């Protein structure tokens, strides 16, 4: 009798485990409450490993998404998944890495890589003059832990490869530009270096938790700095002894 009970319990456990392991991702999505503006189509695979052919937010397509949940992490009160996304995105967005959630720390990302054409990012910026941009922005987050409003911790870089800016008064070749990203006491901080025969510069910026920002740095026109742009530098005053124009700005977003 005990043997039959044990055998039945074993078969029951196997059945339950198999059912959980094969829960269709599409069924889970159908049970989830609707989120206004969010559309997900072409869901296949299981809740643990699968894909969605298209994810859209406010009619903006972010393309395909693939996920592979690390099941063993569930034993440590942590949900983590390796993801790839962006194929077919309206913005030519691409990305891959690990994202997750812990009970102790909340949402996080690790070894996350995201790339986007610079012009696509510029399209979302509200600028007083028309500009164009070429090259790619590549965000690399070695480690990111979210906390309201921005972060608890952050280590990463933002690289602009083959950068070029077009202005009504001439184009600027920037050479490779790289920004180091940090989170200090909940505030976002970055430092940027850039150098080319057109212009060189160094900048630092801080955005605090109340959306106050500070930007300071300098730029120095190079041998190939556009003449038309050079004629406008008089409005900035005189450069220092190194030929650098100093810029300091602060305000609120």
TrEMBL record:
Question: According to the UniProt entry, where is the signal peptide?
Answer: 1-21
Q: Sorted alphabetically, which InterPro entries does this protein's record hold? A: T2SS_protein-GspN
Give GO BP annotations, semicolon-separated: protein transport
**Source domain of life:** Bacteria
Keywords of the record, alphabetical order, are: Cell inner membrane, Cell membrane, Membrane, Protein transport, Signal, Transmembrane, Transport
Cellular component per GO, a single term: plasma membrane
| Places the protein is found | Cell inner membrane
Q: Which family does it belong to?
A: Belongs to the GSP N family.
Record protein name field: Type II secretion system protein N
């Amino acid at each position: 009798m005990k043997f039959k009970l044990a055998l039945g319990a074993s078969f029951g456990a196997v059945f339950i485990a198999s059912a959980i392991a094969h829960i269709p991702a599409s069924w889970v999505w159908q049970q989830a409450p609707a989120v206004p503006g969010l559309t997900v189509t072409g869901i296949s695979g299981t809740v643990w490993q699968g894909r969605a052919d298209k994810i859209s937010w406010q009619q903006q397509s972010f393309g395909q998404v693939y996920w592979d949940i690390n099941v063993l992490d569930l034993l440590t009160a942590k949900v983590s998944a390796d993801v790839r996304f962006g194929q077919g995105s309206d913005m030519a967005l691409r990305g891959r890495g690990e994202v997750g959630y812990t009970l102790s720390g909340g949402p996080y990302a690790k070894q996350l890589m995201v790339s986007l054409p610079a012009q696509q990012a510029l399209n979302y910026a509200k600028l007083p003059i028309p500009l164009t941009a070429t090259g790619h922005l590549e965000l690399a987050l070695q480690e990111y832990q979210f906390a309201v409003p921005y972060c608890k911790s952050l280590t990463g870089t933002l690289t602009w490869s083959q950068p070029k800016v077009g202005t009504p008064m001439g184009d600027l070749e920037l050479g490779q530009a790289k920004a180091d990203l940090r989170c200090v006491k909940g505030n976002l901080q970055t430092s940027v270096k850039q150098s080319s025969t057109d212009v060189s510069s160094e900048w630092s910026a801080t955005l605090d938790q109340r959306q106050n920002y500070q930007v300071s740095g300098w730029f120095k026109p190079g041998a190939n700095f556009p003449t038309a742009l050079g004629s406008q530098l008089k409005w900035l005053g005189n450069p220092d002894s190194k030929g650098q124009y100093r810029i300091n700005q602060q305000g609120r977003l």
